[in-house]
Amino acid sequence: MEKQIENLENNVQIFQMSKCSACDTTLQVPAVHFLCKHAYHLNCFESYSDNAKQCPACVPIAERIRMPSGKDTKGQSSYQQFQKELENSTDPMSLISEYISRGAFEPISK
């Protein structure tokens, strides 16, 4: 996993999404790309997003993970849930990228 983190920090990442996740038409620049592999035309992103730091498609998922109480529906903390998924993951970098794109590591605003 350390090697994958180093790769993200030091190497160019290629995003090859060809369609906008909002309008499902061919992407044209300017475009916004997320590590979760969603991509948007800039105008689609601005129209659909309430938060400039989060993927609009992943926000509902993030809301399920980041309950105001810090607990998920099964009573585990979000951190415990993340740890469990990370331990069982065959691709930990993809899991971490998915959580980052959902905003799971952002402070919870009250």
Automatic annotation (TrEMBL):
Location of the RING-type domain: 20-58
BP GO annotations: endosome organization; organelle fusion; vacuole organization; vesicle docking involved in exocytosis
Topology versus the membrane: Peripheral membrane protein
Listed Pfam families: VPS11_C, zf-C3H2C3
Keywords: Membrane, Metal-binding, Zinc, Zinc-finger
Listed InterPro entries: VPS11_C, Znf_RING, Znf_RING/FYVE/PHD
Molecular function terms, GO-annotated: protein-macromolecule adaptor activity; zinc ion binding
Gene Ontology cellular component annotations, sorted alphabetically: HOPS complex; late endosome membrane
UniProt cross-references to SUPFAM superfamilies, sorted A to Z: RING/U-box
Region spans: Disordered: 68-90
Broad class of the protein's primary localization: membrane
Subcellular location field: Late endosome membrane
The protein's name: RING-type domain-containing protein
